[in-house]
Write a structure and sequence with these properties.
Blueprint: H1 2-18, H2 23-35, H3 45-71, E1 76-83, H4 90-102, E2 106-112, E3 116-123
Antiparallel strand pairs: 1-3, 2-3
Helix pairs in contact: 1-2, 3-4
Protein name: Cation:proton antiporter
Keywords: Membrane, Transmembrane, Transmembrane helix
Length: about 130
Amino acid sequence: MTGYLNILLRLAIWFLLTADFGIANTIIGVCVALLLPRRANPGALKDWLHAIGEIIIAIPQAFIEAIEIMVRPHRYEAMTMEHVKPQRTPGLIFLDIFVITFTPKTIVLKYHEEGLYEVHRIQRRKQS
């Protein structure tokens, strides 16, 4: 089941890159998604469902944060290091970075191979 989710993720990235839903492009995208190398240990289905749930929650959160930024300006910045959840596949790490970056107040600047995300945040008040 998680193999299908990996293929769907690759195909979604293909469509985002090409912005073409034609038959020929879809066939090429499926071929590329199938030919890209796979990892030996695919993520557990539970991890994928949790990541999809986080994406669903991030959509309204992004709208709320955008309105909050317009109504009450955020003048302070902070850099934090967040740990990657254990046993994450590259596909799940990509989805984690996507969720963090999707919301207007945060962006992932760098992924460290040691299992850390470097996250830039804007805040209303300076944290002590």
